[in-house]
Design goal:
Length: 804
């Protein structure tokens, strides 16, 4: 295609001549104008390849001005034509950067050469401009920043598109230091080192961004080629790599998690073949990656809790990106462990699964703890028997079965007699041991279909799911009683214990679990009331009696406040010589409806519920007050015996309490005798301390009901005791019963060798008195002398005695 030329010439002839010449040379003349302004307009619309412009135009703007405007607007090349070559014109022409300069007149060859050179220059410049434009666009598209540093002048110029360049005004830094100071400490050092080396470098640098966060750039810099000083100019680009750095950081963190996780992690490809595992995987399974690479993870699974031994791959996908469940796994060494598996799917861009990840943990310990908790919820930890919950569950089930099959069912309520005493005297660990031994024995006594549970304390329940008639249950209960009665060896001592058993039968006694339990409980209480070591079948009257007992318990709580207690006194006599008045204080409860109630009925209840402490304190104060009153009235009282419960003695401040009462009432301590039941003596060490404290007060100590407990006389010799009281069960068969005679004889002679005085309780006949006198028994009390009596009667009694 021909090159297109535009002519600007105000001399028409010259213009036409020029056009001819150009056409001749093979150019196309696309326009001819004579004025500067027209030239600008035409150039814009024609966009010629070259403009031949007369400098001197007869117009308001001349050629140089028109040329400058055209170049500025469209970068179109101009060759000036002029007849003059004076300095001023040339200078002006030069300002508009012309592509050539032709002095008129010129010949054709000159015109051709000038045009060729100018067009060639224009082509080069055009190419250059395009290249530059492309570079500019590329820099913009790549979001590159430009970095140029003149080392000698220490001038740094930033450009391009990058947030870092924005942080300097006009992209200009005042020297490299200002630039370096933008970076955070580690990056500063990196950059300083790189610059000092005077070599090209490529660094990743962190700097604080305007948003307050941390950003990163990759900075590449090299030296500009220059002949004079090759290391003077550095040039380079930088690019924001914050995103990449953050991702790398995340990746590093993810790797750390992968490596240090407590959970085993398996990564699989899209066909569930293992491609990666973490250290925890090896720890948990014993397999290394080499062992399992390329295999599917099913090799690890033994069985799923529910369902088959495979992962539910089919379920996983777009809808359900994860699955979790419990599995039993097999280690490399064959051992099994329960584990919790979390399987998730990794989806690629096309939303198809590219990878699968399994995270699993060993939950064997959790499952074991669960099982243990479950066991605990249904078992008594002490004996290993079922507990209350277990009984409730089984009772409900067995009752249902009995109802459907229309057969009877039995429930035995077994309660040990005097177990509290063993706990109090031999200590809790001995008590626990007894319960364990007992549970073992009972297990051996019952059938495997029977359910034996411990309700707590010393209460056991035996459920017999199928019963043909009541006698079966009675024989079973008797067998149980027999088993319990066989002596136990506890803390190197032989201990005998008995039990009371209540029996209830479905459907005769009740058809609900609660009703049956209640019935068995009532029957058991009745057995206790009838003297213990006994089994009784439930009768409907028992319900009434156990109600009575409940009422008694409730009434007892109020009796002290209502002033319903009173003390009776039973005289004690010397069997050897003429004696002075001595008494034992015995508690009575004047019940508003039931009249006088014997302590044998309510003391055990008060001991059970703790009321014995305030009641005992009342007894002690009342007795001492009365004793002081008698003394003050001239009665030569020689001894005041007060019964003390083991439970009271256990109180830490018991001695102080007694001391306070003695002080309050002014009763002389040496006249006070504390009667403590024999069972207390079992805990020799503790008793020793307690007794020593009490002896310090100056009071006397007697062992009550001697012969009924577990202790031996030899045990007593280590304790600071003054007296023993032979239980009336040994006195009553005297003198006919040879065994009792021998027993009393040896008790009394042994007591004497230990320097203890002896009182015989319950002397009812002159024969008994005579026999005891013959054995040298010092004191006695009993109906033969007097029943316990109210205070008012005593002065008369003593007066009569005096008369005899
Ligand atoms: P204990 O200390 O052995 O008291 C003697 C019991 O035998 C008294 O029964 C008394 O009435 C009774 N007794 C006395 N002589 C005869 C007799 O010749 N024949 C018969 N069959 N019995 C006789 P009581 O008063 O019913 O007291 C029973 C038990 O209650 C007492 O036995 C004692 O262990 C306890 N007790 C009584 N008062 C108190 C008290 O204030 N505190 C405590 N902790 N226990 C008390
Ligand atoms: Mg007594
Ligand atoms: Mg007694």
């Amino acid at each position: 295609m021909n090159q297109r030329i535009m002519i600007v010439e105000d001399e028409r002839i010259v213009a036409l001549d020029l056009k001819n010449s150009l056409t001749h040379l093979g150019y196309e003349v696309v326009g001819m104008v004579s004025k500067g302004n027209d030239a600008i307009i035409q150039a814009g619309s024609l966009q010629p390849d070259m403009i031949l412009m007369d400098i001197n135009l007869e117009d308001e703007i001349d050629g140089t001005e028109a040329a400058r405007t055209i170049f500025e607007r469209w970068q179109l090349p101009v060759i000036f034509l002029t007849a003059y070559a004076e300095e001023k014109t040339l200078e002006k022409a030069q300002e508009s950067l012309p592509y050539g300069y032709l002095l008129k007149p010129f010949d054709l060859r000159e015109l051709k050469a000038t045009l060729q050179m100018a067009l060639a220059r224009r082509d080069t410049e055009q190419t250059l401009r395009q290249t530059e434009e492309r570079l500019r666009l590329a820099i913009k598209a790549a979001n590159l920043g430009l970095w140029e540093w003149d080392r000698e002048r220490d001038q740094l110029q930033l450009g391009g598109h990058n947030t870092l360049s924005l942080s300097f005004e006009h992209g200009l830094c005042h020297g490299i230091d200002q630039f370096i100071n933008r970076f955070i400490a580690p990056s500063q050092q990196q950059l300083r080192k790189a610059i000092a080396k005077k070599e090209s470098f490529n660094l990743t640098l962190a700097y604080p961004a305007a948003d307050g966060g941390l950003h990163w750039i990759d900075l590449y810099a090299d030296f500009k080629a220059s002949d004079t000083n090759p290391k003077a100019q550095m040039i380079g680009v930088f690019i924001d790599v914050t995103e990449r750095c953050r991702r790398e950081e995340q990746l590093r963190q993810a790797n750390l998690v992968f490596d240090t996780a407590a959970e085993g992690i398996i990564i699989m490809d899209e066909r569930h073949r293992i491609i990666s595992t973490n250290p925890a995987f090896t720890r948990l399974t014993g397999y290394r990656l080499e062992d399992v690479f390329g295999l599917t993870p099913e090799m690890l699974i033994h069985q799923r809790r529910q369902g088959d031994a495979s992962y539910p791959w089919m379920l996983l996908g777009k809808r359900q990106p994860a699955w979790h469940g419990e599995m039993v796994c097999v280690r490399k060494d064959g051992r099994q462990f329960t584990s919790w598996h979390h399987v998730s799917v990794v989806q690629g861009h096309g939303r198809t699964a590219t990878h699968y990840v399994i995270a699993f943990s060993d939950i064997t310990a959790i499952r074991q703890a669960e099982a243990q908790l479950n066991h605990l919820a249904y078992h008594d930890p002490l004996t290993g028997l079922g507990n209350r919950n277990k009984l409730q569950d089984r009772l409900a089930i067995e009752l249902q079965t009995a109802r459907i099959n229309q057969h009877q069912l039995g429930l035995l309520f077994i309660d040990l007699d005097g177990f509290k005493l063993i706990n109090d005297t031999l200590g809790h660990s001995a008590g626990d041991q007894l319960l364990r031994l007992l549970a073992d024995r009972l297990r051996g006594t019952i059938r495997s279909s029977d359910v034996l549970t411990r309700q707590g304390g010393d209460e056991f329940l035996l459920l017999v799911p199928v019963v043909n008639d009541a006698n079966e249950l009675v024989s079973l209960a008797e067998k149980v009683l027999q088993t319990i009665r066989t002596p136990f060896c506890l803390a190197a001592e032989s201990v005998t214990i008995s039990a009371s058993i209540g029996i209830a039968i479905f459907p005769k006694d009740s058809d609900t679990p609660e009703g049956l339990l209640q019935a068995a409980d009532s029957a058991m209480y009745e057995a206790k009331a009838q003297g213990r070591n006994l089994c009784l079948l439930y009768t409907h009257e028992m319900a009434q009696r156990s109600m009575d007992k409940l009422r008694l318990e409730q009434g007892l709580a109020l009796a002290l406040d209502h002033g319903e207690f009173t003390l009776f006194y039973q005289p004690i006599h010397s069997l050897i010589h003429h004696d002075q008045p001595a008494v034992e204080a015995l508690l009575r409860w004047c019940h508003p409806e039931r009249g006088l109630i014997s302590p044998d009925l309510f003391i055990p209840i008060a001991e059970e519920n703790g009321l014995i402490e305030p009641i005992g304190e009342w007894v002690m104060r009342e007795a001492c007050r009365q004793g002081s009153a008698w003394l003050a009235s001239g009665i030569p009282l020689s001894r005041l015996a007060v019964n003390v419960s083991v439970r009271e003695l256990r109180a830490g401040d018991y001695t102080a309490r007694v001391a306070r009462i003695l002080k309050e009432t002014g009763f002389p301590p040496h006249l006070l005798e504390l009667e403590i039941t024999e069972s207390m003596m079992q805990q020799v060490d503790q008793s020793l301390i307690k007794f020593a404290e009490l002896k310090q007060l100056g009071v006397n100590i007697a062992i009550d009901d001697f012969g009924t407990g577990f202790s031996s006389l030899s045990l007593l010799k280590s304790l600071p005791i003054d007296r023993i009281k032979i239980d009336r069960s040994f006195v009553q068969p005297l003198p006919q019963d040879r065994h009792s005679c021998e027993l009393c004889r040896s008790i009394i002679s042994l007591a004497h060798t230990l320097d203890l005085t002896v009182t015989a309780e319950g002397i009812e006949t002159p024969e008994q008195l005579e026999f005891l006198q013959s054995l040298g028994c010092e004191d006695g009390q009993g109906y033969l002398f007097s029943q316990p009596m109210a205070i008012q009667q005593l002065p008369d009694y003593w007066a009569k005695k005096q008369d005899h």
